[in-house]
Amino acid sequence: MLDILGIGFGPSNLALAIQMHELNVFENKKVKFIEKKKSFVWQPGLLLPNTNLQIHFLKDLVTLINPCSKFTFINYLNENGRLLDFINLNISCPSRFEFNDYLTWAANKFSDYVIYNSYIKQINPVVKSGEIQYFNVNYIIDNEEFNVDAKNIILASGRSPKIPEIFSHEYDGVSIIHSDKFTSTDLFEKTKQEKDGICKVAIVGAGQSAAEIFNHLIENMGSNVKLYNFIRGYGYNPSDSSPFRNQVFNPEFVDIFFQLEKNYQKEILNNLSNTNYSVVDSDLIEEIYTKLYHMRHIEKSDKATILSMTEIEKVERTRDNKINLTYKDKLTGNNKIEEVDYIILSTGYDQVFIKNKYFIGFNDLLEQKNNGEIELNRDYSVKFNVPSNSKIFLQGYSESSHGISDSLISVIANRANIIAKSLMLKEVISK
Ligand SMILES: Cc1cc2nc3c(=O)[nH]c(=O)nc-3n(C[C@H](O)[C@H](O)[C@H](O)COP(=O)(O)OP(=O)(O)OC[C@H]3O[C@@H](n4cnc5c(N)ncnc54)[C@H](O)[C@@H]3O)c2cc1C
């Protein structure tokens, strides 16, 4: 029986591993993490050149809890012999490549505890005399099924790409993909190649991922490619990362947010959505504008176009396997059709999926909100409606109860610290 099983080994469970290391949990507890990928990599589908971390590097895996830890970003720079070179860059947001390298450096220190290339299928509670005793977890390695018992589970398997209903019947992961897989698809390679005939690519969405892909393709696409970015609003909205706004990402704000009445929590989340959702970093907006200006006025080219104020209403496959996008131009009220070869959906992520994915056999044991979301305690543990000797903690699925920072890196050190301390309480660790 494992004392602690982590599902997924991305930044959230990596931060937890660090907290458990610093609190000496590994010394006397049986701990394993199960991770779907073959080795550690952070958000590989959008690991593009010239993209940066969107938070200060001091909000790394551990600094906010223990600035003297050996797992800080600064120590990573130091161990890799480039602390001074980094200082001379004079930046607070390193490239995503470098931050991925930092995370990989930290993750490699825990490789004895991680089973890579395997994934969790289902969690089943073992209930005796009306009380949850432990969990039996079903996982797959190379198509073979295994089971393991665990006293406590920390679920941090990330979010699930959102495919809007209107695209779902034609979605094939080849000609229509989600931005989450951008770098791992054929499309990424194909748009770089020079070919005969025009290849039209539509990007749907107005957030950071859409803008990053648009910007990347403008620079790297072959001369036969034509690019469209379908946007519901009028151009990109800038993300608000001003200092007062940034205070909502402070760990203390989670305490404030958690004890608010539900309707105020909703109001705050709506009010803060322009810090994270459907918004683009201002520097990137400037960069794209400059490129489009140059393209349109100097090169006299219409190879890349932002179609603002558009609503896609119909998606149909043509006989020659292209895709017709019927959309409303909200500025004129007219319906138009664009035939494209590829569609990249930068349409965000879903965090509600976990209930039906992992908790399917025991939904009836969960405390749930009116909208069906799982109720959590402040320490991120799931509320059961029966007594339980064991706990399941969720990392990254509690924006509605713990606030807007929940899916971001800003709070991962503090959240991991809370969970690690909660795990150390006697009643949740088996003897
Ligand atoms: C392109 C991109 C850039 C981002 N940049 C920033 C940023 O700059 N700043 C910021 O604060 N946030 C950023 N984010 C938000 C992002 O959510 C966090 O950076 C971070 O990745 C969250 O870590 P996580 O471990 O919770 O989830 P993830 O990083 O998604 O990791 C989850 C892990 O679980 C694994 N997994 C999934 N299912 C299973 C299963 N069934 N069994 C086993 N393993 C499984 C996955 O393979 C993955 O490795 C970004 C997100 C994206 C998509």
UniProtKB/TrEMBL annotation:
Cofactor(s), names only, from the UniProt record: FAD
Pathway: Siderophore biosynthesis
Keyword NADP set for record: yes
Keyword presence, Oxidoreductase: yes
A matching Pfam family: Lys_Orn_oxgnase
Keyword line: FAD, Flavoprotein, NADP, Oxidoreductase
Molecular-function annotations in GO: oxidoreductase activity
GO biological process, one term: intracellular iron ion homeostasis
SUPFAM superfamilies registered for this protein in UniProt: FAD/NAD(P)-binding domain
Family: Belongs to the lysine N(6)-hydroxylase/L-ornithine N(5)-oxygenase family.
Protein name as catalogued: Ornithine monooxygenase
